[in-house]
Amino acid sequence: MHASSRLYNCCRCHVQVIICSSCDRGQRYCPGECRHEARSESLKRAASKYQQSQAGCFNNADRQRRFRERKKQKVTHQGSTQKPLHALLKTRLTETKKTQMLSLSGFTLRCHHCGAVCEPFLRQNFLHSSRFKPSFRRPEFF
What we know:
Elements: E1 3-9, E2 16-20, H1 34-51, H2 54-72, H3 95-101, E3 109-110, E4 117-123
Parallel strand pairs: 1-4
Antiparallel strand pairs: 1-2, 3-4
């Protein structure tokens, strides 16, 4: 018996992705670099929001005060003259590699996360509905 699977489009690069039910945890991004880039953007937004709050302003001022105290300590020795190593740049998946990665091999559908063989019928929605559905009704008080 093949695993049940879901078909979705990556929210970032809009590539169609097939995911089996054992790997499905509500993913919205393809298994490439999209999820890492989205996570780093989310962390940057959270950090800037925190720095604009009152607690963030106080912590930033305290950190800057400690930094200025450390800078008062003069260092008389020079640092080492080591040559920096060459930094390697991250490679990004090109569109041709993404389409090759997401291409179907023959008539079998495979999960793009783990490679398991999936059923030929794909779901468009999640297998289970969320437990935390927002309630649009006001509570009635008696």
